[in-house]
Amino acid sequence: MNWTTPNDIRHQVQRLWDRGLLLSVLCDGDALFPYRLTLKTPNSRELSERFDEVREWISLLSKGAGPYRVEWQSINHRILGTNSVPSEVWIDSMDHALGIIGRRKAAEQFNRILNFTKETRPELLPWLKKRPLQVLELVDIWPQLLSVTNWLRNHPRPGLHLRQIDLPGIHTKLIEGHRGVLSELFDLVLPEESIDKHYSGVSGFCRRYGFKDKPMRVRFRILDPDIRLMPGSSDQDITLTHNDFSALNLPVSKIFITENEINFLAFPYKPNAMLLFGAGYGLPNIADAHCLQQRKLYYWGDIDTHGFAILNQFRTHFPHTESFLMDRQTLMDHKLLWGEESHPEKGELSQLTAEEYALYDDLKADRFAARLRLEQERIGFEYLRAALEGL
């Protein structure tokens, strides 16, 4: 039987709930009810050939008709004569809809949050309408989230660490764990001048709203044994804050960037050069380091789609960057060491050279092997040394 049953009706109402539609209409009183549901009914042929099944279906639909309303239609069948069959099914009220799917309690919780928000921060009502199911997930901490939102509205760009917010029942982990939600709430209540739109997402939360952020750190090695930035150390493996690194006037002409810590530690000495560790997708650590604009830059990443995506991103800030050991010959010379990339990049990369893009396109299209990856640490040390000597 493919005709609508009471269970199908429940599924239709459940989909209204899952889309957030039932709760969102509570925010502004939009007229949703009475709401007509989809009804699949027997056709004329089925009425005559499956009449007993049709009567059973009518009985089933009628018995479950408490929370929904069935409208009937009289039809004149050439064999069966005049009969009444269901023609439409309606839900007449929100209460009936909630009763069908057992969501009355959840709706009451949402209404409490809705009324509380109307009284304290009505600017947030559009967010409740847009994300009602997420509101229910936050029901236990919604007052605290509003408390933080109110505090920042009264103290824009406070210049404090999150740990320094002193509010009853509010702790740092609550804020850090809900930065995505708070960011959307802050954007609705804060004046434009209090938001630095250069930053976004969880990683840019503090800088976007004027909190003190954990200092970003840059780790690097001086590869020339005759250059000493730190006295008394033979291995110039140095970590500085982003600000201190940006202020350096580095006494080198060549800078290499690698993503692998073992490669970073074992990278050969090289006159007049230094090595940066782990730029990757964390490029903001060094994006405004002006000293990098005047040096030759060599980026060494994995030969896979993400390696080229990171190189592409790196070049948006440092367009003079050259790739290092990320070429077709290196890939073919290490065929026995090929691995597999778990989630390949599929986007278009506009900052690659023609040769780089051709290799990226081959990797993206699996022309050598499925999801091919050559990790940079698999490249032999002597191979690396020879490539350095050839620069």
Tell me the helix content. Answer: 40-55%
Whole-angstrom Rg: 32 Å
Please tally the helical runs, counting DSSP H or I stretches of 4 or more residues. Answer: 18
Elements, N to C (H/E):
HHEHHEEHHHHHHHHEEHEHEEHEHEHEH
Q: Remind me, CATH topology of the largest domain?
A: Dna Topoisomerase Vi A Subunit, Chain: A, domain 2
In order across it, which strands form the biggest sheet? 5-4-7-6-8-9
Supply the CATH architecture of the largest domain: 3-Layer(aba) Sandwich
Query: Which residue ranges are poorly predicted, with pLDDT under 50 across at least 5 consecutive positions?
Result: none
Outline:
With 391 residues, the chain is an alpha/beta fold. Helix content is 41%, strand content 14%.
List keywords for this structure.
11 strands, 14% strand, 3 domains, elongated, six-stranded mixed sheet
Set out the fold topology.
Elements: H1 6-18, H2 21-28, E1 35-37, H3 44-49, H4 51-63, E2 69-77, E3 81-91, H5 94-101, H6 104-120, H7 125-130, H8 132-137, H9 142-154, H10 172-177, H11 179-189, H12 205-209, E4 217-222, E5 237-241, H13 242-246, E6 254-258, H14 261-266, E7 273-277, E8 296-300, H15 305-317, E9 322-323, H16 328-333, E10 339-340, H17 354-364, E11 372-373, H18 381-389
Parallel strand pairs: 6-7, 6-8, 8-9
Antiparallel strand pairs: 1-3, 2-3, 4-5, 4-7, 10-11
Helix pairs in contact: 1-5, 9-11
